[in-house]
TrEMBL record:
This is Kinesin-like protein. Residues 1-309 form the Kinesin motor domain. It comes from Caloenas nicobarica (Nicobar pigeon). Transmembrane segments: none annotated. It comes from the Eukaryota.
Amino acid sequence: QRVVLMDPSEDPDDILRANRSREKTFVFDMVFDHRATQEEVYVSTTKSLIGGVISGYNATVFAYGPTGAGKTYTMLGTDCEPGICIRALDDLFKTLEGTTEEMDYRVSMSYVEIYNEVIRDLLNPSSGFLDLREDPRGSIQIAGITEVSTTNAQEVMQLLMKGNKQRTQEPTAANETSSRSHAVLQVTVTQKSRRKAMGKEVRIGKLFMVDLAGSERAAQTQNRGKRMKEGAHINRSLLALGNCINALSEKKGSRAQFVNFRDSKLTRLLKDSLGGNSRTVMIAHISPASTSFEESRMTLIYAYRAKNIKTQV
């Protein structure tokens, strides 16, 4: 459960810095090394959330970290090593099939990307930029989004692969196919009881799976021009997410901390799943390379703060 971060530039013979080591230890719920399989990561992070979604709680899974550390691989995976999205949906459908005698259920999903603070529909890319609106009940909706109802995980896999090809990817100095946008997969499970007396009650659980864009610093990717602007937008939304996490995790002191969800589209869309009736998992990715020491340090600090959030359900 422990990550020890060593500073690659540290010189053991440097007398002046002898007692000022930059080595840091972080403790998390679970730490995986390079030998962990997709299955292991899924079972220890996300598997326990599926039952909650079916009983009407929201759940969110984030993949966070610098570019090239494997976020998209963890979330989507490859054909022979499917990632968290596919495994979670597979489990979801299996569990729901066990309850069909009592419940009618509908599973719908949408897949969007947030790029330069505008929202694009990955399942229907021609629809242009979409708006976020609030409906009368106060939940945030994306106007004009394509929602697909599916019944098996195979269809979903194809949709995700198709959607992922539409994502904005650009080569940077750090990664050939760097995702320059946040991809949000939203799965909504709506259930109605088949018994007459309880027919009025509807249970809705939402599962968000978010593949964030890379959190690296601009110097690492040698970005210029358009890439640089993109990076600024990415960092802006990640900073807004960080600010929300900070505000949520600070102890309720003399004054309740104001949580600014409206700073970016990403945090506004995830408002319910960060602070509300929700269980949230953040999977932080770091690279073992000594060149990305700074990135690894920032990522671990960010994830460590996220650990302190307590939500009131």
